[in-house]
Amino acid sequence: MSDRPCGGDAAVRLELHVAGRIEDYALIGDMQTAALVCRDGTVDWLCLPRFDSHAVFAGLLGTEEHGFWRLGPAYPADAEPPRASRRTYRGDSLILESEWDTPRGTVRVTDFMPPRDGAPQLIRIVEGVSGRVPMRSALRMRFSYGRVVPWVHKHDGRTVAVAGPDSVWFDTEAETYGKDLTTFADFTVAPGERIAFTISWEPSHRTPPALPEPEQSLEATEEFWHEWVEHCTYHGPYREAVIRSLITLKALTYAPTGGIVAAPTTSLPEDIGGVRNWDYRYTWLRDAAITLSSLLRTGYREEARAWREWLLRAVAGDPENLQIMYGIAGERELGEAELDWLPGYEGSAPVRVGNGAAHQLQLDVYGEVTEALHLAHMTGLARNDYASLLQLKLIRYLEDHWQDPDEGIWEVRGPRRHFVHSKVMAWVAVDRTIKLIESGDADGPLERWRELRDDIHRDVCEKGYDPERNTFTQSYGSQELDASLLLIPQVGFLPPDDKRVIGTIEAIQRELSTSDGFILRYPTESGDENVDGLPGDEGAFLACSFWMADDLAMIGRVDEARKLFEKLLALRNDLGLLAEEWDPRLQRQVGNFPQAFSHVPLIDTALRLTASGAYGG
User: Fold this and answer.
1) Which of 208, 227, 246 is the last residue of a domain?
2) Which of 90, 502, 524, 545 could cross-link with 519 by S-S, CB 3.0 to 4.6 Å?
3) What does the DSSP 8-state code read for residue 108?
4) What is the DSSP letter of 72?
């Protein structure tokens, strides 16, 4: 872990804010938005009131001037803010407990966001454990991603920050004061003493939110997570990792609609200092579909049902023009813009909001969505006639378009190509719909679509396979490999023991592995914009590394699969969280955090290894 500070105290330190390593952060949330809390007690990221709203604390992507909230032991002006001596989630919950051992005693801070029943709240409770510990809260709210300094004033004894349509209310029993456009509280906590701090968001034209009840909210939040985790049906050897991943996926679900964000952050770089910085606070059909699969396989039918309903609303009226992503309430327009006043995480600019890839053509999403609907049907989720109708409409679209080039699973910003993975997933869409018709739950041109399924399969095997190297390739006519080819046996396109599958797995191991055995998505060469339309490199893609472990288990190399899986588990931070990628040069997590597309395959691989008995115990 880094020894660098994770925030700052503006009253005593006015230099540039220094964000922590990505893995230095904890996630807390209320299933509508989320905050990232660093090891020194600094909240560096929080969007209110939704995941995709403007950030109130954007210090993660900028400096102290762009908003933060630090709560921890007081420290001298010439020292760095102390990092927590230890931290953990309280049991199987999203309640964070951080403890500091100081020369004057030990203190605990409990951070959480109660599942929302009214105004969104972030609650922080300070508790004395031993001795008498001087503490400080430093709260600097900045609206519109750090660009707007709010009007901070008192209202009926409460502190409120107002800017345009937004207001954030700050409540505490501690005495507060303002300095350097920051709200401070200096106090000392003794054993058994508890002092709470709460911020609540409310539209600025509305009446003030109700006064918080921190202790009651803490009890209710703990009860919520305890009851939710009890529904998990997985009881294998990797239960701790699976439960933490499931909690993270639940935290990334927007409760009012069932939409699932890929991550709660934007512009955390895939290449430190580079331009591969994207906004992930939206619902990718691909990510959400595979998340649904993991939820169904671990007992969470209600979340799966809610996502299916979100999908049907999002694509209603225009299923043929399926977007690869939508807003969390089903919004279609996600225009991309750059925030030039933010310098970016560790200088990784530009900082982007919105995502211009929303209108790309990615044929694989038809397969992922159809596979998810098929699994929901097979596992007994209550029938929805429109879901079956949607499947049929998607296949009719694919009949005319499966031979088109597209941007592929990785959203390349270069020319469209005939990506092998896209064709394979088009085959999946047709195959699963044929199975739906064969079951008697839908009507369609069965023989015609069986011929279509055979045509796609033949096309891929003839044009996407290199017989000299015995491997499938990234796209038709290409010599490059692509880790998405690892999904070929997992979706049933070819059996695991097919020599072409084994050859592809071995080729990817040879050509796309990092020195520590993790898997790159595809080859990138620094400065070469012809590979994916972007300059720079990126780290090992964690989902691809889990896919490799799956494939190794499927072809009988179960010990090797288990070892790779456990190496991947070791990359999680101390709280069990994963970003999108691992930088093998810097030995650190990179990309948006925490990442659904990393935690879902973790769950899937754990299930596969448990079923195979490959866990070594």
Assistant:
1) 227
2) 545
3) E
4) E
My answer on whether 243 and 258 are in the same domain is yes
What Rg do the C-alpha atoms of the chain give, in angstroms?
Answer: 25
Q: How many domains does the chain have?
A: 2
Last residue of a domain, one of 167, 192, 227: 227
pLDDT at 524 over 70: no
Question: How many helices (DSSP H) and strands (DSSP E) are in the chain?
Answer: 14, 27
Quick one: 321 exposed, middle or buried, by C-beta within 10 A (0-12, 13-18, 19+)? exposed
- What pLDDT, in 10s, does the model give residues 562-608? 999 999 999 999 999 999 999 999 999 999 999 999 999 999 999 99
Phi, psi of 134 (to 5 degrees): -70, 135
pLDDT, tens digit (0-9, with 9 covering 90-100), for 240-295: 999 999 999 999 999 999 999 999 999 999 999 999 899 999 999 888 888 888 99
Structural domain boundaries, residue 403: 231-612
Residue 16 lies in a domain: no
Asked if the peptide bond before residue 214 counts as cis, ω within 30 degrees of 0, the response is no
Return the structure tokens found at 543.
């989902």
214 and 255, same domain (yes or no): no
Whether residue 257 sits in one domain with residue 143 = no
How far is residue 33's CA from residue 48's CA, in Å, rounded to a whole number? Answer: 7
- In the predicted model, is pLDDT for residue 117 greater than 80? yes
CA distance 326 to 333: 8
CATH number at residue 439: 1.50.10.10
